Every structure is written in C-alpha cells, then in structure tokens.
Amino acid sequence: MAMISLVFLFSLVCYGCSLPTSKPAIQPRKPLVERGGTIQLICSMDCPDAEVQWEGLDTDLGNIISNHTQSILTLSNATINMEGTKLCSGQCQGTPSQAKVELNVYSFPDTLQLDSQPQTLTVGQPARLLCSMSHVYPHGVLTLSWFQGDEQLEASKEMEEEEMEGSEDQLFVYHSELELPRVAEDVTYKCKATLEVEGEVFVHERVAIAITGPKSTQELLSATESIALTPTSGRISQTSAPELFTTADWKSSVTLWQS
User: Fold this and answer.
1) Does residue 48 have a cis bond before it (omega within 30 degrees)?
2) How does pLDDT run across 127-181, given as a tens digit for each residue?
3) Could you tell me if residue 97 is inside a domain?
4) Whole-number mean pLDDT of the chain?
5) Which of 170, 149, 146 lies closest to 157, judged by CA?
C-alpha cells in the first residue's frame, strides 16, 4: 500500500511538472510595413492570469492598448528608424518570459521613370532607353529589368545604385540603360522594377511604344498599376491602402485575382 501511494504521489508531481508554461506570442511573426504606413503588433499569452507589455523606449513612438492577456502596439507613419527588434514581456503564474520580432520597413513608391534618347522612338532607328527609380529602401533588394514584348533583354551596363543626397531615411536611387541598335516594329519596350523583401515581391512597370510619327516618348509612356506578387500562392495581387488588423493571423492588405 505504501508503494502504491508513493507511485501515485510521484505521478502527480511529474504531471504538475510537465504542464507547459505559456510564453508571449507576437503576430505577425515577420512584420513588414511600408514607409509612411501603419502596422499593428499583437502580443498575447494563453494564460488566464497573464500580464503582457511591450518593452523598450522605441515603443514610445507608437500607441499601446493592453489588457491582461493581450497588448497591441500600433506604429503609424512608419519610418526607417522604426526598424529593429520589438520586445514583449509577460508573466504567467509568476513565471516571466519574453518574445521578440524584427520589424522591417520598405519604401517602394511609384517613382519609376522611363526616358529615351532621342525622345522620339522611331521604328528601324537606334535609341537608348533610360530607366530610374528613387526613394527606395532597403538597398540591394531592387532589380530593374528590360523587356521587348515578352522577351527579357540584357541591360547595356550594370545597374547603378546610390544613396540619395539629403535623405534622412537612407533612401536609394537606381539607374539602368538599354541600347537599341534598331527599334523593332509592333513591340513595346518595358522597364520593370521589382522589390523583394521578407518573402514579399512588389512590382512597378513603365512601357514605351515605338512609333513612326513625330511624337515624343514622354507622350507614349504608360504605367501599369503597382502589384504585389506572392510567389507561393501563384496569384497576382493588386495593392491597396493598408488596413489595421486585430486578429492573430496578419496578412498583407490586398485584393486577389487569379492569374
């Protein structure tokens, strides 16, 4: 009987020791916000008597709404300086724990420009196309691609990247050139800017159409809408204004349509 009591007591002790300790969880796990936009970081604990709070002086830049089990940090008018580690601490049954995420900020405004020399693209004549994009962040993640119709072309020289002068947010400008020995007939020439950050891909495009009449290229430049591609979904998404999220499953604010 004594042996049975000891085994029963030991099982109770082990069962109590095996109970998982709740730790803070932050959503989204890979927060990404556009420069000037708004994002919410939600820290929560699955514990009835939990207490959670955001730590660090940088949280003073945002608005915090909290209850015992959840704390929402809202960052508005995001700047590059807001990037970095965001720390949330919590307590469950007197046991402290922490969670952290890395906030990333990107800048990809519709500043893509396409020019030509000469300004009139004439079929059968040589020309040079000049593509540039400014106010881009972070550096090293933007590509400028050239297309003749659906065929991708090689740029005449390597893309140039430089930091913008007088920029407080470490923004960058990119340049690319395409030499055309002979402007083709019945095709369009396109410069495509692609920014890939944290698994998200964003695109801007400009198109020039060759003509036989004396119109300037500036009159023929046309812009597609800015689109966001989700490589894993196989779909193309039209970007829209950012929304605030209060659910744990954070996703980009997009309107999806099947490609």
Assistant:
1) no
2) 999 999 999 999 999 999 999 999 999 999 889 999 998 777 789 999 999 999 9
3) yes
4) 77
5) 146
Residue 165 CA to residue 171 CA, distance in Å, equals 9
E-strand ranges in 107-165 read: 113-117, 127-136, 142-148, 151-153, 160-163
| DSSP state letter for 225 | P
| 227 part of a folded domain | no
CATH number for position 202: 2.60.40.10
Which range scores top for mean pLDDT: 13-17, 42-46, 68-72?
Answer: 42-46
Neighbours of 168 (CB within 10 A): 9
For 199, the domain range is: 112-209
Of 209, 227, 249, the domain-final residue: 209
In a domain, 91, yes or no: yes
